[in-house]
């Protein structure tokens, strides 16, 4: 039968064992100090983070965006709906982008002087005193110089009129008076005291930090959130986060103010252009009207005229109606000419003056549409560029509408000229009928007619100017404040509950992950539990020692390692057959690979047996790499190979009688033979062991590692028991398949395993009934039978191993089907 199929022990089985619930639980419990350290470290880091992290506050405000289509504020302007310059609406998405524009935030930074921050030293971290600062620092430099502004100053008020200034960059302290302009490394500044507050800050240092203007704009834009409250309303919610609660509130409130002011300025742009046009025309018409009135006055004075209408009353009544119509047409022609010429010389981004008296409803409507498109284009460019597809579409519409408007005005002018010409001809007919009226009367009427035209146009422009001034006075913003900026005063960051929860989770999960990974990736044998999985017999273990001497078991020694060898000496009686009648007992000590401590175990076990008065001999039977004499520090001596090859040698010739302080005889391996395996089959080997049984009570044979050569198996017929040494934290678990196979196939007599170099602090030692210091009343590390009182910390972190084992045994085990 294939041994590997019965119970293979590759790395996969170790992984499978690591996945066992009971094994995992035992690993977690045995590493309880890892979890405790992880929790303490995680909570300490969380505590320090919260202690040294400045709190972040949030301010929130809500505004209503007015939209004529949805009725958001139309009632406020109902009284002025007849003014065409008051028409227009808002788009919610555009308003959100305008709120988040750099232009508005730059104005907020300048308005609130956010480039300057005030701090005082605290016990842990510096604290910002935005609204509580007793002074204000004004920047004298222009905006271009503020772009690279950076630095730190410290101000200490002396009294109500003076203060000390420490320029950190120059490392220079000077004394100044409040209100003086001071040149510093941060630029020119003016320190302004707040009334009644400086005295309370005497001898206290105020740290002033200066930041670049662009950096502050970027900082607050990143902290700003603008979003609609829901999809059906025009409400917008603005939130911002900052270390100062009052500063956050001021920023949100000022941002809303700047937005409204910007919208008002946009709406007033048409009215301002119209007002400028009307004022220019009034100034021109006033001059013309004054000239006409002066001509009438001079004409009457020169000709001594008072009333010349009595003779031509009948003709003049008909001519008056004609004159009135000519006056109206003249005003219409002048207005149409101005707008037409304005359209020809203006670009596609200029607003057209309105309310100039055009009677053509079609042209007036097109002018209003044209101005509205210009406003929409300008508002979109605040948060976009001219290559935006929306802007390009509006430009195309503006150009098309402009061409249509120019064509409409041209047709309208031609119509007016035709009407004016017809009325002028008709007026000439009336003039011919009054040809009998003296020449002076006709000249006076001509002057008066010009005077009436100018006066009518003057009064019309005065009326339109008042309408425009009313529109400027009643212009309202697009955003109505519903809730001003408000902060609860409770820090939103850092979230103490979340941070401690994360720290607690990490403090448990990281140690658990480390323990699990260590269990999965660990390929070394650590102690009895690794042998127990294979069902191998166990005789005991030797704790790890860094003792310089190889011989640690001497007469009177009471160390824990000496007691461990005494325990093994007792357990050996149970593995060696008691019905041996051939004399002494032969025990071989072997291992899987070199370096596992066979020679150390053999020497000290021989010393332990000799201390009971038994005759003991230690044989170095590693013929391929003999090192027993070197290990003991003894000179070369003939040994086993010499005895086998030389029939003339006797036992007395090769045995070293008690070369050490202890009562132990030594038999070396001798010269290195070229054929050690064949040499072990020599009849003299059987004779050697037979003689040794008769001469000694115990024959301990230090043999070669069975994982390297077969020499040990060749002498198996001469021995009574096999002591198989497994070094902890040295031998790979996968190599346990070698001793497992030897044990199952019984190729070595009465095999028993011994763990060498176990670490009892890790719980791998005698924790299962063989343990030194646990089941037999030995004080761990302090000598035989001594009890040492536990310290406070040992009592605090100690736990009952037996109770933990019983609890682990109660956990459900996985069935073979689950393992598959």
Largest sheet: 8 strands, mixed
Give average pLDDT, whole number. Answer: 79
% residues in beta strands? 5-15%
For the biggest β-sheet, the strand order reads 14-21-20-15-19-16-18-17
Enumerate the spans where pLDDT stays under 50 for 5 or more consecutive residues: 1-19, 71-89, 763-790, 792-820
Distance between the termini: 22 Å
How many helices? The count is 27
For the secondary structure, the number of strands is: 21
What is the global morphology? rod-shaped
Compute the gyration radius: what is it? 55 Å
Q: What structural class results from the helix and strand content?
A: alpha/beta
**Helicity range:** 40-55%
Description:
The protein has 820 residues and is an alpha/beta fold. The protein is 48% helix and 15% strand. It contains 27 helices and 21 strands. The strands form 4 sheets. An 8-stranded mixed β-sheet has the order 14-21-20-15-19-16-18-17, sandwiched between helices. A 6-stranded antiparallel β-sheet has the order 3-2-10-5-6-7, with no helix packed on it. A 4-stranded antiparallel β-sheet has the order 11-12-1-13. Strand 17 (655-656) and strand 18 (664-667) form a beta hairpin. Helix 10 (313-345) runs antiparallel to helix 12 (389-433). The longest helix is centred in the middle third of the chain and has 59 residues, at 245-303.
Annotation keywords:
820 residues; alpha/beta; 8-stranded mixed sheet; 6-stranded antiparallel sheet; 27 helices; 48% helix; 15% strand; rod-shaped; disordered C terminus
């Amino acid at each position: 039968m294939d041994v590997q199929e019965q119970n293979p022990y590759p790395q996969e089985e170790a992984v499978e064992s690591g996945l066992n619930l009971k094994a995992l639980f035992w690993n977690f419990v045995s590493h309880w100090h890892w979890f405790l350290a992880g929790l303490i470290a995680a909570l300490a880091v969380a505590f320090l983070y919260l202690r040294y992290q400045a709190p972040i506050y949030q301010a929130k405000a809500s505004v209503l965006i007015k939209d004529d289509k949805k009725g958001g504020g139309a009632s406020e302007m109902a009284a002025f709906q007849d003014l065409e310059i008051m028409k227009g609406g808002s788009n919610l998405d555009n308003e959100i982008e305008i709120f988040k524009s750099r232009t508005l935030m730059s104005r907020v930074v300048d308005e609130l002087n956010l480039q300057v921050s005030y701090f005082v030293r605290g016990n842990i971290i510096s604290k910002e005193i935005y609204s509580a600062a007793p002074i204000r620092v004004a920047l004298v430099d222009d905006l271009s110089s503020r772009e690279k502004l950076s630095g730190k100053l410290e101000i200490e008020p002396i009294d109500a009129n003076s203060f000390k200034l420490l320029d950190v960059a120059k490392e220079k302290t000077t004394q100044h008076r409040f209100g003086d302009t001071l040149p510093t490394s941060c630029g020119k500044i003016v320190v302004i005291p707040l009334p009644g507050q400086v005295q309370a800050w005497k001898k206290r240092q105020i740290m002033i930090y200066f930041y670049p203007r662009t950096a502050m704009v970027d900082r607050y834009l990143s902290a700003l959130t603008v979003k609609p409250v829901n999809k059906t309303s025009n409400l917008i919610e603005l939130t911002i986060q900052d270390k100062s609660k009052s500063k956050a509130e001021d920023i949100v409130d000022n941002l809303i103010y700047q937005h409204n002011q910007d919208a008002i300025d946009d709406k007033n742009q048409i009215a301002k252009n119209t007002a400028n046009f009307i004022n220019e025309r009034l100034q021109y018409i006033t001059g013309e009207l004054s000239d006409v009135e002066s001509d009438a006055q001079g004409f009457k004075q020169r000709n001594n005229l008072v009333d010349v209408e009595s003779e031509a009353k009948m003709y003049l009544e008909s001519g008056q109606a004609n004159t009135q119509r000519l006056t109206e047409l003249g005003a219409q022609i002048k207005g149409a000419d101005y707008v037409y010429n304005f359209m020809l010389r203006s670009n596609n981004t200029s607003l057209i003056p309105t309310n100039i008296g055009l009677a053509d409803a079609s042209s007036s409507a097109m002018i209003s549409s044209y101005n509205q498109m210009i406003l929409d284009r300008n508002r979109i460019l605040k948060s976009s560029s001219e290559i935006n597809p929306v802007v390009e579409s509006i430009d195309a519409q503006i150009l098309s509408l402009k061409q249509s408007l120019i064509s409409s005005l041209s047709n309208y002018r031609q119509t007016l000229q035709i009407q004016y010409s017809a009325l002028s001809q008709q007026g000439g007919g009336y003039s011919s009928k009054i040809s009998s009226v003296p020449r002076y009367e006709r000249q006076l009427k001509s002057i008066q007619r010009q005077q009436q035209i100018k006066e009518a146009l003057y009064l019309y422009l005065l009326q339109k100017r008042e309408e425009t001034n009313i529109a400027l006075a009643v212009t309202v913003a697009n955003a109505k404040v519903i809730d001003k900026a408000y902060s609860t005063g409770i820090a939103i960051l850092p979230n103490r509950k979340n941070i401690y929860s994360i720290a607690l989770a990490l403090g448990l999960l990281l140690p658990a992950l480390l323990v699990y990974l260590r269990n999965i990736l660990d390929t070394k044998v650590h102690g009895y539990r690794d042998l127990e999985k294979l069902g191998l017999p166990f005789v005991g273990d030797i704790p790890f020692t860094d003792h310089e001497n190889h011989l640690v078991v001497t007469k009177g020694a009471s160390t824990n390692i000496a007691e461990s060898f005494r325990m093994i000496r007792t357990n050996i009686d149970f593995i060696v057959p008691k019905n041996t009648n051939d004399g002494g007992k032969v025990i071989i000590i072997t291992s899987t690979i070199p370096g596992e401590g066979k020679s150390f175990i053999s020497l000290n076990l021989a010393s332990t047996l000799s201390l009971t008065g038994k005759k003991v001999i230690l044989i170095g039977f590693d013929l391929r790499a003999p090192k027993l004499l070197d290990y003991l520090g003894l000179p070369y001596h003939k040994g086993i190979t010499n005895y086998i090859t030389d029939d003339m040698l006797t036992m007395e010739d090769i045995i070293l009688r008690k070369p050490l302080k202890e009562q132990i005889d030594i038999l070396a391996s001798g010269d290195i033979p070229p054929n050690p395996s064949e040499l072990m089959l020599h009849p003299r080997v059987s004779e050697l062991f037979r003689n040794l049984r008769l001469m000694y009570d115990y024959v301990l044979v230090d043999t070669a590692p069975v994982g390297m050569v077969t020499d040990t198996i060749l002498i198996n017929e001469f021995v009574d028991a096999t002591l198989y040494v497994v070094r902890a934290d040295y031998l790979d678990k996968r190599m346990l398949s070698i001793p497992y196979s030897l044990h199952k196939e019984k190729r070595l007599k009465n095999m028993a395993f011994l763990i060498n170099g176990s670490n009892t602090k890790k719980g791998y030692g005698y924790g299962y009934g063989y343990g030194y210091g646990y089941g037999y009343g030995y004080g761990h590390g302090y000598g035989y039978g001594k009890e040492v009182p536990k310290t406070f910390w040992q009592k605090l972190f100690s736990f009952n191993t037996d109770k933990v084992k019983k609890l682990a045994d109660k956990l459900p085990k996985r069935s073979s089907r689950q393992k598959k």
